[in-house]
Amino acid sequence: MRDFFIKTKRIGFSKWNEIDLNLAIQLWGDKEVTRFICSTGIFTKEDIIHRLETEFQNEKLFQIQYWPIFELSTMELIGCCGIRPFDRCSYEIGSHLRKIYWGMGYASEAAKAVIDYSFDVLKADKLYAGHHPQNGASKKLLSKLGFQYIEEKFYEPTGLYHPSYELVNDRL
Description:
By secondary structure, this protein is an alpha+beta fold. The protein has helices spanning 21-28, 31-34, 45-62, 106-121, 136-144, and strands spanning 6-7, 11-13, 66-71, 77-87, 90-97, 126-130, 148-155, 160-168. It is globular. The N and C termini lie far apart (36 Å). The model has no long low-confidence stretch (mean pLDDT 96).
């Protein structure tokens, strides 16, 4: 049984741990999930291991991750949603969902919980986000969540300029 430190109506947020490689492969081993994340569109097993190690490091150093999220009714992995360091007092938000959970409102529900956690618990000044230029679903989600477009930023993993956005914490 996993421990959840954030719960929404349908989602439980946990933390990646050393025994989660199979879950990580289930998520990042699917080329439909990774097609907008890197230039090749595919994560190798080594890429997945490196991604997990990055999440472990972010947890150790900053107490944050792109946390694994689970459907509370089935305990199945939905994907991940969370934050990573961006700059002082701000973070970058992101999510990756397994294809079977696309279009069901999980991305929005998870992102809202992460926004609340970032602003209310961590007292972040701002959240930043970006998306692959061809990922219309992410663009629509960021708009729905209230993010404002700020610029095109070069994203080395894809080798492209990605639309970038910010959401200012008006709760401070």
